[in-house]
Amino acid sequence: MQSGTKVSADLGSPIDISLPVHPSYDLESRRKALERAVSSSSKPRYTASVDAFGIPRPTSSPLRFGEWCGDISAGASVNCHVVSVCPHGAGTHTECAAHFLEGSATGVYSIEDTRPEKSIKLAVLLTVEPEKLEKSGDTYAPGQPEDLVISKRVLESAVKSLEESYLSLPPAPAGASSALVPFCEAIVIRTGTPERFGEKKEAPVRKAGSEETKSAAKPVHYSYTGKNPPYFTKEAMEYLVSLNCYHLLCDLPSVDRENDQGHLIAHRVFLRLPLKDSPASSTPAAAAGIAKGKKEKEKPPVPTITELIFPPDREEVPDGIYILDLHVAPLLSDASPSRPVLYPAAVFHSSTFSRPF
Ligand SMILES: [Zn+2]
Protein backbone atom coordinates (compact mmCIF):
# COMPACT_ATOMS: atom_id res chain seq x y z
CA MET A 1 0.00 0.00 0.00
CA GLN A 2 1.32 3.44 -0.90
CA SER A 3 2.12 5.91 1.85
CA GLY A 4 -0.75 8.24 2.58
CA THR A 5 -3.29 5.53 1.77
CA LYS A 6 -5.43 3.97 4.47
CA VAL A 7 -8.20 1.44 4.24
CA SER A 8 -10.97 1.32 6.78
CA ALA A 9 -13.29 -1.70 6.98
CA ASP A 10 -16.71 -2.14 8.50
CA LEU A 11 -16.06 -5.37 10.41
CA GLY A 12 -19.58 -5.34 11.77
CA SER A 13 -21.07 -6.01 8.33
CA PRO A 14 -19.71 -9.35 7.03
CA ILE A 15 -21.00 -10.49 3.65
CA ASP A 16 -20.70 -14.26 3.36
CA ILE A 17 -20.36 -15.11 -0.34
CA SER A 18 -20.06 -18.87 0.06
CA LEU A 19 -22.48 -21.54 -1.04
CA PRO A 20 -22.46 -24.34 1.53
CA VAL A 21 -22.07 -28.01 0.70
CA HIS A 22 -25.42 -29.70 1.25
CA PRO A 23 -25.00 -33.44 1.73
CA SER A 24 -28.67 -34.08 2.37
CA TYR A 25 -30.13 -31.51 -0.02
CA ASP A 26 -32.87 -31.11 2.59
CA LEU A 27 -32.62 -27.38 2.19
CA GLU A 28 -36.06 -26.42 3.37
CA SER A 29 -35.58 -28.11 6.74
CA ARG A 30 -32.23 -26.41 6.97
CA ARG A 31 -33.75 -23.00 6.25
CA LYS A 32 -36.47 -23.46 8.83
CA ALA A 33 -33.99 -24.60 11.46
CA LEU A 34 -31.81 -21.58 10.77
CA GLU A 35 -34.74 -19.21 10.98
CA ARG A 36 -35.43 -20.56 14.42
CA ALA A 37 -31.79 -20.49 15.45
CA VAL A 38 -30.47 -17.19 14.13
CA SER A 39 -31.87 -13.80 13.33
CA SER A 40 -29.87 -13.29 10.14
CA SER A 41 -31.84 -13.83 6.94
CA SER A 42 -29.11 -15.18 4.59
CA LYS A 43 -31.93 -16.78 2.68
CA PRO A 44 -30.42 -17.54 -0.72
CA ARG A 45 -27.46 -19.43 0.68
CA TYR A 46 -29.63 -21.93 2.45
CA THR A 47 -32.17 -22.59 -0.26
CA ALA A 48 -29.85 -23.18 -3.19
CA SER A 49 -27.47 -25.93 -4.13
CA VAL A 50 -25.42 -26.71 -7.22
CA ASP A 51 -23.82 -29.47 -9.21
CA ALA A 52 -21.26 -29.30 -11.99
CA PHE A 53 -19.24 -31.59 -14.28
CA GLY A 54 -21.54 -34.49 -13.43
CA ILE A 55 -19.71 -34.86 -10.13
CA PRO A 56 -21.75 -37.06 -7.78
CA ARG A 57 -23.51 -35.17 -5.05
CA PRO A 58 -22.04 -35.10 -1.55
CA THR A 59 -23.25 -37.73 0.87
CA SER A 60 -23.52 -37.97 4.62
CA SER A 61 -24.25 -41.28 6.29
CA PRO A 62 -23.94 -42.51 9.87
CA LEU A 63 -20.73 -44.23 10.91
CA ARG A 64 -21.38 -47.88 11.76
CA PHE A 65 -19.43 -50.06 14.19
CA GLY A 66 -21.11 -53.46 14.20
CA GLU A 67 -24.57 -52.84 15.67
CA TRP A 68 -23.82 -49.22 16.51
CA CYS A 69 -25.15 -46.60 14.13
CA GLY A 70 -23.92 -43.02 14.59
CA ASP A 71 -27.23 -41.21 14.38
CA ILE A 72 -29.45 -39.95 17.17
CA SER A 73 -32.53 -41.01 15.23
CA ALA A 74 -31.16 -44.58 15.45
CA GLY A 75 -30.75 -44.40 19.22
CA ALA A 76 -27.12 -43.25 19.42
CA SER A 77 -26.14 -40.59 21.95
CA VAL A 78 -24.48 -38.50 19.25
CA ASN A 79 -24.57 -37.96 15.52
CA CYS A 80 -21.35 -39.23 13.97
CA HIS A 81 -21.51 -39.09 10.19
CA VAL A 82 -19.09 -39.87 7.41
CA VAL A 83 -19.25 -37.07 4.85
CA SER A 84 -18.08 -37.66 1.32
CA VAL A 85 -17.65 -34.66 -0.96
CA CYS A 86 -15.73 -33.73 -4.10
CA PRO A 87 -15.33 -29.98 -3.52
CA HIS A 88 -15.10 -29.15 -7.24
CA GLY A 89 -18.81 -29.61 -7.93
CA ALA A 90 -20.65 -29.22 -4.65
CA GLY A 91 -20.36 -25.63 -3.46
CA THR A 92 -17.84 -22.87 -2.85
CA HIS A 93 -14.34 -24.27 -2.86
CA THR A 94 -10.77 -23.03 -3.11
CA GLU A 95 -8.02 -24.76 -5.06
CA CYS A 96 -4.36 -24.11 -5.75
CA ALA A 97 -1.58 -25.54 -7.92
CA ALA A 98 -1.86 -28.80 -5.99
CA HIS A 99 -4.88 -29.45 -8.23
CA PHE A 100 -2.31 -30.00 -11.01
CA LEU A 101 0.65 -31.52 -9.17
CA GLU A 102 1.39 -35.13 -8.54
CA GLY A 103 1.41 -35.76 -4.82
CA SER A 104 -1.62 -33.77 -3.73
CA ALA A 105 -3.44 -36.98 -2.82
CA THR A 106 -0.75 -37.73 -0.24
CA GLY A 107 -0.58 -34.18 1.04
CA VAL A 108 2.86 -33.36 -0.42
CA TYR A 109 1.27 -30.30 -1.98
CA SER A 110 -2.04 -29.08 -0.69
CA ILE A 111 -4.38 -26.17 -0.22
CA GLU A 112 -2.75 -25.83 3.21
CA ASP A 113 0.33 -24.47 1.39
CA THR A 114 -1.61 -21.32 0.57
CA ARG A 115 -0.76 -20.11 4.05
CA PRO A 116 -4.28 -19.51 5.29
CA GLU A 117 -2.93 -17.61 8.31
CA LYS A 118 -2.66 -14.65 5.94
CA SER A 119 -6.31 -14.90 5.10
CA ILE A 120 -7.14 -11.17 5.30
CA LYS A 121 -6.63 -9.48 1.94
CA LEU A 122 -7.72 -6.40 0.06
CA ALA A 123 -10.13 -7.37 -2.68
CA VAL A 124 -11.89 -5.80 -5.63
CA LEU A 125 -15.42 -6.95 -6.45
CA LEU A 126 -16.34 -6.60 -10.14
CA THR A 127 -19.54 -7.45 -12.00
CA VAL A 128 -18.91 -8.51 -15.59
CA GLU A 129 -20.99 -9.42 -18.62
CA PRO A 130 -19.53 -12.37 -20.55
CA GLU A 131 -19.29 -11.97 -24.33
CA LYS A 132 -18.97 -14.38 -27.25
CA LEU A 133 -15.47 -15.72 -27.78
CA GLU A 134 -15.54 -14.84 -31.49
CA LYS A 135 -16.23 -11.17 -30.69
CA SER A 136 -13.78 -10.87 -27.81
CA GLY A 137 -10.58 -10.85 -29.88
CA ASP A 138 -9.13 -13.27 -27.31
CA THR A 139 -8.01 -16.86 -27.65
CA TYR A 140 -8.88 -20.13 -26.00
CA ALA A 141 -7.57 -23.15 -27.88
CA PRO A 142 -10.43 -25.65 -27.36
CA GLY A 143 -13.11 -22.91 -27.38
CA GLN A 144 -15.95 -22.47 -29.87
CA PRO A 145 -16.96 -19.10 -31.43
CA GLU A 146 -20.36 -19.07 -29.68
CA ASP A 147 -18.93 -19.77 -26.21
CA LEU A 148 -19.53 -17.04 -23.63
CA VAL A 149 -16.28 -15.87 -22.11
CA ILE A 150 -14.88 -13.37 -19.67
CA SER A 151 -12.33 -11.67 -21.88
CA LYS A 152 -9.52 -9.22 -21.22
CA ARG A 153 -11.68 -6.48 -22.70
CA VAL A 154 -14.57 -7.26 -20.34
CA LEU A 155 -12.27 -7.19 -17.30
CA GLU A 156 -10.47 -4.02 -18.40
CA SER A 157 -13.71 -2.16 -18.82
CA ALA A 158 -15.00 -3.32 -15.40
CA VAL A 159 -11.76 -2.17 -13.78
CA LYS A 160 -11.92 1.17 -15.58
CA SER A 161 -15.50 1.90 -14.59
CA LEU A 162 -14.75 1.00 -10.97
CA GLU A 163 -11.76 3.32 -11.02
CA GLU A 164 -13.99 6.13 -12.28
CA SER A 165 -16.60 5.53 -9.59
CA TYR A 166 -14.12 6.27 -6.81
CA LEU A 167 -13.84 9.92 -5.96
CA SER A 168 -10.20 9.65 -5.03
CA LEU A 169 -7.81 6.80 -5.52
CA PRO A 170 -4.09 7.10 -5.03
CA PRO A 171 -2.24 7.44 -8.34
CA ALA A 172 -1.28 4.17 -10.02
CA PRO A 173 2.10 2.86 -8.81
CA ALA A 174 4.98 3.35 -11.27
CA GLY A 175 4.57 0.96 -14.19
CA ALA A 176 1.11 -0.22 -13.09
CA SER A 177 -1.78 -0.14 -15.53
CA SER A 178 -4.42 0.83 -12.98
CA ALA A 179 -4.77 2.78 -9.76
CA LEU A 180 -6.67 -0.22 -8.42
CA VAL A 181 -3.58 -2.46 -8.60
CA PRO A 182 -2.65 -1.98 -4.91
CA PHE A 183 -6.09 -3.34 -4.01
CA CYS A 184 -6.11 -6.25 -6.46
CA GLU A 185 -4.35 -9.05 -4.56
CA ALA A 186 -7.78 -10.68 -4.63
CA ILE A 187 -10.40 -10.12 -7.33
CA VAL A 188 -13.97 -11.31 -6.97
CA ILE A 189 -15.82 -11.76 -10.28
CA ARG A 190 -19.63 -11.77 -10.32
CA THR A 191 -21.50 -12.80 -13.47
CA GLY A 192 -24.90 -13.41 -11.91
CA THR A 193 -24.76 -17.18 -12.00
CA PRO A 194 -26.27 -19.61 -11.22
CA GLU A 195 -29.55 -17.93 -12.08
CA ARG A 196 -28.28 -17.05 -15.55
CA PHE A 197 -26.08 -19.91 -16.62
CA GLY A 198 -27.17 -22.90 -14.60
CA GLU A 199 -30.28 -24.99 -15.22
CA LYS A 200 -32.83 -24.45 -12.47
CA LYS A 201 -34.21 -27.68 -11.09
CA GLU A 202 -36.35 -28.75 -8.21
CA ALA A 203 -33.94 -30.12 -5.64
CA PRO A 204 -34.36 -33.77 -4.76
CA VAL A 205 -34.34 -34.33 -1.02
CA ARG A 206 -32.62 -37.21 0.65
CA LYS A 207 -33.23 -37.75 4.34
CA ALA A 208 -31.37 -40.21 6.52
CA GLY A 209 -32.81 -43.67 6.13
CA SER A 210 -35.23 -42.80 3.34
CA GLU A 211 -35.31 -42.87 -0.42
CA GLU A 212 -35.09 -39.65 -2.39
CA THR A 213 -38.31 -37.69 -2.34
CA LYS A 214 -39.39 -34.40 -3.80
CA SER A 215 -39.57 -31.54 -1.36
CA ALA A 216 -42.96 -29.90 -1.02
CA ALA A 217 -41.21 -26.59 -0.43
CA LYS A 218 -39.23 -26.86 -3.67
CA PRO A 219 -35.79 -25.64 -2.71
CA VAL A 220 -33.78 -24.64 -5.73
CA HIS A 221 -31.03 -26.67 -7.28
CA TYR A 222 -28.89 -25.37 -10.14
CA SER A 223 -27.15 -27.75 -12.45
CA TYR A 224 -24.20 -26.60 -14.53
CA THR A 225 -23.55 -30.08 -15.84
CA GLY A 226 -23.57 -30.08 -19.65
CA LYS A 227 -24.40 -26.34 -19.82
CA ASN A 228 -21.00 -25.10 -21.00
CA PRO A 229 -21.03 -22.09 -18.64
CA PRO A 230 -18.85 -19.02 -19.35
CA TYR A 231 -15.11 -19.23 -18.70
CA PHE A 232 -12.01 -17.02 -18.75
CA THR A 233 -9.84 -16.55 -21.84
CA LYS A 234 -6.07 -16.87 -21.77
CA GLU A 235 -5.66 -13.11 -22.25
CA ALA A 236 -8.10 -12.38 -19.42
CA MET A 237 -6.00 -14.44 -17.05
CA GLU A 238 -2.78 -12.80 -18.24
CA TYR A 239 -4.43 -9.45 -17.53
CA LEU A 240 -5.34 -10.51 -13.95
CA VAL A 241 -1.75 -11.67 -13.41
CA SER A 242 -0.53 -8.28 -14.70
CA LEU A 243 -2.70 -6.60 -12.03
CA ASN A 244 -0.71 -8.56 -9.42
CA CYS A 245 -3.77 -10.60 -8.54
CA TYR A 246 -3.03 -13.81 -6.62
CA HIS A 247 -6.52 -14.82 -5.51
CA LEU A 248 -9.37 -15.09 -7.99
CA LEU A 249 -12.91 -15.79 -6.85
CA CYS A 250 -15.77 -16.33 -9.28
CA ASP A 251 -19.37 -17.51 -9.28
CA LEU A 252 -18.75 -20.00 -12.09
CA PRO A 253 -18.08 -23.72 -11.59
CA SER A 254 -14.69 -23.35 -13.27
CA VAL A 255 -12.48 -20.65 -14.74
CA ASP A 256 -11.96 -23.03 -17.67
CA ARG A 257 -14.34 -24.41 -20.29
CA GLU A 258 -16.48 -27.32 -19.12
CA ASN A 259 -14.93 -29.53 -21.78
CA ASP A 260 -11.49 -28.17 -22.56
CA GLN A 261 -9.78 -31.44 -23.48
CA GLY A 262 -7.65 -31.24 -20.34
CA HIS A 263 -5.74 -28.08 -21.24
CA LEU A 264 -7.00 -25.97 -18.31
CA ILE A 265 -5.41 -22.91 -19.86
CA ALA A 266 -7.07 -20.36 -17.57
CA HIS A 267 -6.19 -22.26 -14.40
CA ARG A 268 -2.60 -22.73 -15.50
CA VAL A 269 -2.01 -19.09 -16.46
CA PHE A 270 -3.48 -17.77 -13.24
CA LEU A 271 -1.74 -20.33 -11.01
CA ARG A 272 1.58 -19.43 -12.68
CA LEU A 273 1.97 -22.97 -14.01
CA PRO A 274 3.45 -23.79 -17.41
CA LEU A 275 0.87 -24.57 -20.08
CA LYS A 276 0.24 -28.26 -20.61
CA ASP A 277 2.37 -28.77 -23.69
CA SER A 278 5.08 -26.22 -23.00
CA PRO A 279 8.52 -27.20 -21.72
CA ALA A 280 8.68 -25.99 -18.10
CA SER A 281 11.77 -23.95 -17.28
CA SER A 282 11.26 -24.55 -13.56
CA THR A 283 9.52 -27.26 -11.61
CA PRO A 284 5.75 -26.79 -11.57
CA ALA A 285 5.75 -26.50 -7.78
CA ALA A 286 8.29 -23.69 -7.83
CA ALA A 287 6.44 -21.94 -10.63
CA ALA A 288 3.29 -22.00 -8.57
CA GLY A 289 4.94 -20.69 -5.45
CA ILE A 290 4.55 -23.95 -3.60
CA ALA A 291 8.28 -24.26 -3.12
CA LYS A 292 9.91 -25.48 0.02
CA GLY A 293 13.05 -24.00 1.49
CA LYS A 294 12.62 -20.29 0.79
CA LYS A 295 12.44 -17.92 3.68
CA GLU A 296 8.84 -17.04 4.47
CA LYS A 297 9.35 -13.35 3.70
CA GLU A 298 10.80 -14.06 0.27
CA LYS A 299 7.89 -16.15 -0.89
CA PRO A 300 5.28 -14.51 -3.09
CA PRO A 301 1.66 -15.31 -2.23
CA VAL A 302 0.58 -18.77 -3.39
CA PRO A 303 -2.14 -18.22 -6.01
CA THR A 304 -5.58 -19.63 -5.33
CA ILE A 305 -8.77 -19.94 -7.35
CA THR A 306 -12.13 -20.03 -5.60
CA GLU A 307 -15.10 -21.23 -7.65
CA LEU A 308 -18.86 -21.44 -7.16
CA ILE A 309 -19.07 -18.43 -4.87
CA PHE A 310 -22.60 -17.11 -4.35
CA PRO A 311 -22.47 -13.33 -3.93
CA PRO A 312 -25.57 -11.22 -3.39
CA ASP A 313 -26.89 -9.10 -6.26
CA ARG A 314 -25.16 -5.91 -7.30
CA GLU A 315 -28.00 -3.78 -5.92
CA GLU A 316 -27.41 -5.28 -2.49
CA VAL A 317 -23.60 -5.40 -2.55
CA PRO A 318 -22.11 -2.94 -5.08
CA ASP A 319 -18.85 -3.37 -6.96
CA GLY A 320 -15.95 -1.86 -5.06
CA ILE A 321 -13.04 -2.39 -2.71
CA TYR A 322 -13.57 -4.81 0.16
CA ILE A 323 -11.60 -6.67 2.76
CA LEU A 324 -11.69 -10.39 2.02
CA ASP A 325 -11.38 -13.03 4.71
CA LEU A 326 -10.92 -16.34 2.90
CA HIS A 327 -10.83 -19.50 4.98
CA VAL A 328 -10.49 -23.07 3.78
CA ALA A 329 -11.12 -26.24 5.73
CA PRO A 330 -7.71 -27.46 6.97
CA LEU A 331 -7.48 -30.42 4.60
CA LEU A 332 -4.29 -31.75 3.06
CA SER A 333 -5.86 -31.92 -0.37
CA ASP A 334 -5.81 -30.15 -3.73
CA ALA A 335 -8.98 -28.22 -2.86
CA SER A 336 -11.26 -27.59 0.05
CA PRO A 337 -14.74 -26.23 0.69
CA SER A 338 -14.19 -22.61 1.68
CA ARG A 339 -15.89 -19.59 3.18
CA PRO A 340 -14.99 -16.23 1.66
CA VAL A 341 -16.38 -13.28 3.60
CA LEU A 342 -16.29 -9.67 2.37
CA TYR A 343 -16.27 -6.58 4.58
CA PRO A 344 -17.20 -3.18 3.12
CA ALA A 345 -14.10 -0.99 2.96
CA ALA A 346 -13.33 2.65 2.31
CA VAL A 347 -10.07 4.05 0.99
CA PHE A 348 -8.55 7.21 2.41
CA HIS A 349 -5.91 8.90 0.36
CA SER A 350 -4.30 12.18 1.38
CA SER A 351 -7.10 12.71 3.89
CA THR A 352 -9.77 12.26 1.22
CA PHE A 353 -12.58 9.78 1.74
CA SER A 354 -13.02 7.80 -1.47
CA ARG A 355 -16.50 6.37 -1.22
CA PRO A 356 -19.10 6.37 1.51
CA PHE A 357 -20.74 3.07 2.39
ZN1 LIG B 1 -12.55 -26.53 -8.77
Gist?
The chain is of the alpha+beta class and 357 residues long. Helices cover 15% and strands 26% of the residues. The strands form six sheets. The protein has a seven-stranded mixed barrel. A three-stranded mixed sheet has the order 3-16-13.
What structural category do the secondary elements indicate? Answer: alpha+beta
CATH level 1 class label of the largest domain: Alpha Beta
Count of structural domains = 2
Q: Name every ligand kind in the structure.
A: zinc ion
Low-confidence stretches: 37-44, 205-217
Name the overall outline.
Answer: globular
Number of helices: 7
Main sheet record: 7 strands, mixed, barrel
Describe this entry's structure for a reader.
- By secondary structure, this protein is of the alpha+beta class.
- It has 2 domains: 1-19 and 91-193 and 229-357, 3-Layer(bba) Sandwich (Glucose Oxidase, domain 1), CATH 3.50.30; 22-89 and 198-226, no CATH class.
- It has helices at residues 27-37, 43-46, 133-136, 152-165, 234-242, 265-270, 284-287; strands at residues 5-9, 15-16, 48-51, 59-62, 64-65, 68-69, 81-84, 93-95, 120-127, 131-132, 148-150, 186-190, 199-202, 204-205, 213-214, 220-223, 231-232, 247-250, 304-307, 320-328, 335-349, 352-353.
- A 7-stranded mixed beta barrel has the order 8-19-18-12-9-20-21. The protein has a 3-stranded mixed β-sheet with strand order 3-16-13. Strands 10-11-17 form a 3-stranded mixed β-sheet.
- α4 (152-165) runs parallel beside α5.
